[in-house]
């Protein structure tokens, strides 16, 4: 096992890795930007070092500084978490050049799977189903029109180096092809420094279902039961559950075996995820991409399998053999994850940085909160606004949802707005309860104008209540309410109104 592990990240994933390291008996090192000097991960690690100013390009993306820290403190391995440098092949190679183990897959796997075009070619040769479309990049507007006619509408234009919805365009008509081609190339270049794009057929009623794989350096690879990540907003996952309501045991086996073939295409030797787009109508599944890192949503797989994926990822990097075979992987019960963001759901999900003035975290049986929060923390504007991941388990899907509703009702974050109320509304949606979802679910069920329509009415009601309370107070003071003045020391109706509005959790 390693002597000391540096975690090149921040927030809740760093806390998650530190916990795994502590259980393995390995000391940990945190790095932090000037904006994160008081962050929880800095306090949780055995050692911590500042690596630069708040902007990530000057701190968390500066792998030269991270490697300097690793050399200075004697770390012999680096865990990249997710985001930042987790899928940066140059960083993985620089670690190897310095004699430090990169806790992730081999550089070739990162390079091939990090590009949508090369990954599609690699998995196609292994017999993994692909969405009908191109396996190379577009080179001209004329070729875009030619391929559009060949594929048929609707079409998706995608950035080859893309992710998170960047460089992504849906095309419904031939006259929109050229404009989409130009826009996707421009956005891809701005986001990834690479303007390569390609086209494929748009899958109707698409569901996003993914398979967790785990490999070691001895050629062993296993898959876990699927995670469904179809509840998305702006192509970012919001709620994930495992297993999917769409998948039966036969489909699970077929998707798992396809995921193994995709992983074997690049001799995969770590924790990773093969993502599929699935037709909600025909249940056909097609390769979407492979993420060569630990996923944000990995805890729900841990909840239904009992496997500590983070710990096994570290053990694999250290050269240990996977301690289980495919037939040993269970699928027990149901798990659900809600991503809690510092965003205002009633104001178009705008980020809400600021100080957390109060915090109450849910607990109880089969409730897990993965968080980097504490009371008094200043949430910075510089990074992803995700504050925590609330995860629950239930023996049935119904019990799982009921437990999440209970946990959300206990969760209180004071001082800033969060997406907790949005999740509570989501869990009451009849389509969600029936498992009738796809990647368009939020756009179809939660239109921004719905929120805007409700909010003004609430504001009007509050103003009316305040005016009424003021008039009653004034009437009491003048002794005109029922011909009597109120008892001395009574709280006014205005104060009583304010108390009712306070969160009962505090």
UniProtKB/TrEMBL annotation:
Gene3D superfamilies (UniProt xref): ATP-grasp fold, B domain
Which SMART domains does UniProt cross-reference here? Answer: Biotin_carb_C
> Which InterPro entries does this UniProt record tie to the protein?
Acetyl_CoA_COase_biotin_COase (IPR004549), ATP-grasp (IPR011761), BC-like_N (IPR005481), Biotin_carboxylase_complex (IPR050856), Biotin_carboxylation_dom (IPR011764), Biotin_COase_C (IPR005482), CPAse_ATP-bd (IPR005479), PreATP-grasp_dom_sf (IPR016185)
Please report the stretch or stretches of sequence annotated as the Biotin carboxylation domain. Answer: 1-447
| Gene Ontology MF terms in the entry | ATP binding; ligase activity; metal ion binding
Q: Which UniProt keywords apply?
A: ATP-binding, Biotin, Ligase, Magnesium, Nucleotide-binding
Give the domain of life.
Answer: Bacteria
Extent of the signal sequence? none
Region Disordered, residue ranges: 479-506
Q: Which residues form the ATP-grasp domain?
A: 120-318
The protein depicted here goes by the name Acetyl-CoA carboxylase biotin carboxylase subunit
Which species is this record about? Answer: Mesoterricola silvestris
């Amino acid at each position: 096992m390693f002597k000391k592990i540096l975690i090149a990240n921040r927030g809740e994933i760093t806390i998650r890795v530190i916990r795994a390291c502590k259980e393995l008996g390995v000391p940990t090192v945190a790095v932090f930007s000037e904006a994160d000097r008081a962050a929880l991960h800095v306090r949780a690690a055995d050692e911590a070092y500042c690596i630069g100013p708040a902007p990530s390009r000057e701190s968390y993306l500066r792998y030269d500084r991270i490697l300097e820290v690793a050399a200075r403190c004697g770390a012999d391995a680096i865990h990249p978490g997710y985001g930042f440098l987790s899928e940066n092949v140059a960083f993985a190679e620089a670690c190897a050049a310095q004699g430090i183990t990169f806790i992730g897959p081999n550089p070739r796997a990162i390079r091939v799977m990090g590009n949508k075009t090369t990954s599609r070619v690699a998995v196609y040769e292994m017999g993994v189903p692909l969405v009908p479309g191109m396996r190379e990049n577009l080179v001209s507007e004329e070729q875009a029109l030619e391929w559009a006619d060949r594929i048929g509408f609707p079409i998706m234009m995608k950035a080859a180096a893309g992710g998170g919805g960047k460089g992504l365009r849906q095309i419904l008509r031939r006259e929109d092809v050229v404009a989409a081609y130009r826009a996707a190339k421009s956005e891809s270049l701005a986001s990834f420094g690479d303007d390569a794009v390609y086209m494929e057929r748009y899958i109707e009623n698409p569901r996003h279902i993914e398979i967790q794989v785990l490999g070691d350096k001895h050629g062993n690879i296993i898959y876990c039961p699927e995670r469904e990540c179809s509840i998305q907003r702006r192509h970012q996952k919001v709620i994930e559950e495992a297993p999917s309501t769409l998948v039966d045991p036969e489909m699970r086996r077929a998707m798992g075996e396809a995921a193994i073939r995709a992983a074997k295409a690049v001799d995969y030797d770590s924790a990773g995820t093969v993502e599929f787009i699935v037709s909600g109508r025909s249940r056909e599944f097609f390769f979407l991409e492979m993420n060569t890192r630990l996923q944000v949503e990995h805890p729900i797989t841990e909840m239904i399998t009992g496997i500590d994926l983070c710990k096994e990822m570290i053990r694999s990097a250290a050269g240990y053999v996977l301690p289980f075979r495919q037939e040993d992987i269970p699928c027990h019960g149901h798990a659900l994850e809600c991503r809690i963001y510092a965003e205002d759901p009633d104001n178009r999900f705008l980020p809400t940085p600021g100080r957390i003035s109060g915090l109450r975290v849910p607990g109880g049986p089969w409730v897990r909160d993965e968080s980097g929060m504490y009371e008094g923390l200043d949430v910075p504007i510089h990074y992803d606004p995700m504050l925590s991941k609330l995860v629950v388990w239930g023996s049935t899907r119904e019990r799982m949802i009921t437990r999440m509703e209970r946990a959300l009702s206990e969760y209180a974050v004071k001082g800033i707005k969060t997406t907790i109320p949005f999740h509570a509304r989501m869990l009451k949606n009849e389509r969600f309860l029936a498992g009738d979802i796809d990647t368009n679910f939020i756009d179809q069920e939660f239109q921004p104008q719905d929120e805007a329509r409700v909010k003004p009415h609430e504001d009007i009601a509050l103003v009316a209540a305040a005016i009424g309370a003021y008039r009653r107070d004034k009437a009491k003071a003048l002794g005109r309410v029922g011909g009597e003045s109120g008892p001395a020391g009574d709280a006014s109706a205005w104060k009583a109104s304010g108390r009712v509005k306070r969160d009962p959790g505090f």
